[in-house]
Amino acid sequence: MWNRPRFDLKVRLTLRVAAISAACFAAISAYFLITADRAAHARIDDIAAIVAKTLELQQGKVQWVASPRSDFPNLDPVSAYVMTPGLCLAFRGPGGDMLQRFCSGAPTPASPPPQLFAAFYRSLFDPGREAARPVIVRGAKLGETVVSVDPAVQTAEAWHEAGRLMLALAIALPLLCVLVYAALARALRPTRMIGSGLERIAAGDLTTRLPPFDLAELSAIRDVFNHLAESLDIALAERAELTRKLIALQDEERRHLARELHDEFGQSLAAIRALASSARQTAAQDCPDLLGECDGIARTATGMMETLRGALFRLRPPDVEELGLVASLEGLVAGWNGRSRGQTRFTIRFDGTFESLPAATSASLYRIVQEALTNAAKHAGATRVSLELAMHTEEIALAIDDDGRSNDPAAKSGMGLLGMRERVAALRGQLSFEAAPNGGSALRVVIPLAAADRQPLDRAA
């Protein structure tokens, strides 16, 4: 599965708010620019209408006084009160010629607009567009007035208005992002508690519960989280109880099988040895050639008796409750050292006191160690096996290391490992079995003392 990049939710939401805010500022700026452009065109249209009406009055006065001297058109009277920087007034005759034109100078702006903005503004709004109004006297068109504004002046005015908005955006947008991020960080602070709770659940602490939250969405997550943790705790408790019952039933079957083997098979082997001894005495008197066969039968029966004792010892271990876990494990390791005849060396070390452990927990630990040593010696072919059992403040740690074959299928997935997992699950613990860095295998078992203390006092072995 690909590793997708993860982004902080607060940063992502803040960036989205910033993008929306910037879009709103851009829309407001566009609205102001459009409004300003319309106002500028409306102003020059009004000026054109005023100039046209003034010229009409001038022509009417000339005709009324019948003055032979005519100074029509005369734009001086109207230019005195309508002229603004960059404004041009003109009169175009019927033939299209400019008969008179007045333009005011355009001051150099302190901060001229950027070329990019100027090109953008001119492409959208067409600054410098002329406004024309006809001059009509007694139904005859004498010409028309033409009013325009210098495009550079209109563009500079637009940049001045947009610049103020951009300055407001430059100040408000970072402040808004900071405030939004702080508000989101405060609102999403409970998510850290949710993440921590999930980590504790993953670590096996099903007693974790989340407190109430102010936000309705987080409160819904909290309710589902607590319900899930409670359900998992109940389910694991029921599973652990069922596993304990199955283990108790398995141990009872082992004790029953051990009794049957001891009473039936053991007595039969003892009878065979007695008959072989009796037959040897008879053969020594009557038929010496049968002495070898009688001795062979006796040796076979003796070997089977030794095998039977080992099987009975594994089926029914010493009473851990009476001897104690430490003494029982020391006896188990000593027995393996004796039976291996130096081919495998077993060592054991304890750290802490184990007298206060419940009998069921001690018996389960004994069985786990027994199965682990069997796997290491028989399946993995180890020559060195080290065992360490430590009592910590909140847990019991068991570590078994060997130098055997770590890739052996029987050592990894056999019934022995399955039985160990069942017993560890019944104790609400964790088991890991993997290859050691320097070769061999490493078995680790961790059992919480809280779960060990909740174990029933019925004997499991």
TrEMBL record:
CDD domains: HAMP, HATPase_UhpB-NarQ-NarX-like
Localization annotation: Membrane
SUPFAM superfamilies assigned: ATPase domain of HSP90 chaperone/DNA topoisomerase II/histidine kinase
TM stretches of this protein: 13-34, 165-184
Every HAMP domain range: 185-237
Keyword Manganese attached: no
Record keywords, A-Z: Kinase, Membrane, Phosphoprotein, Transferase, Transmembrane, Transmembrane helix, Two-component regulatory system
Keyword Transmembrane helix included in the entry's annotation: yes
GO molecular function: kinase activity
Pfam families the UniProt entry points to: HAMP, HATPase_c, HisKA_3
InterPro entries hit by this protein: HAMP_dom, HATPase_C_sf, HATPase_dom, Sensor_HK_TwoCompSys, Sig_transdc_His_kin_sub3_dim/P
PROSITE patterns: HAMP (PS50885)
Domain of life of the native organism: Bacteria
Protein name as annotated: HAMP domain-containing sensor histidine kinase
Native organism: Bradyrhizobium xenonodulans
